[in-house]
Amino acid sequence: MVPYEIDKVEASLNLGMALGFSQAIQNSGVYICMSGFIEKYDLISKNRSLGKFELVR
Predict the structure, then answer these.
(1) Residues β-bridged to residue 44
(2) Neighbours of 28 (CB within 10 A)
(3) What is the pLDDT of residues 3-56, one digit of tens each?
């Protein structure tokens, strides 16, 4: 999936959150950090019609 554009502010936020989360997490696993969410890989998906990431519950 290729984004239309990359927002430098959001990219920096996602990177900062991911780094902080990786230092604080106590359970290993595969996590995704997108649009202010940090969750296990199977709990985040992209809503293509809205063009944003959402939690799957």
Answers:
(1) 55
(2) 6
(3) 556 677 878 888 889 999 999 988 889 998 888 888 999 999 988 898 888 998
How far is Cα of residue 11 from the mean position of the Cα atoms in its chain? 10
β partners of residue 40: 31
d(CA 26, CA 48): 32
* Torsion sign (Cα): 35, 18, 38, 30: positive
Query: CB 39: neighbour CB atoms within 10 A?
Result: 15
User: pTM to 2 decimals?
Assistant: 0.67
Q: Which amino acid is at 33?
A: C
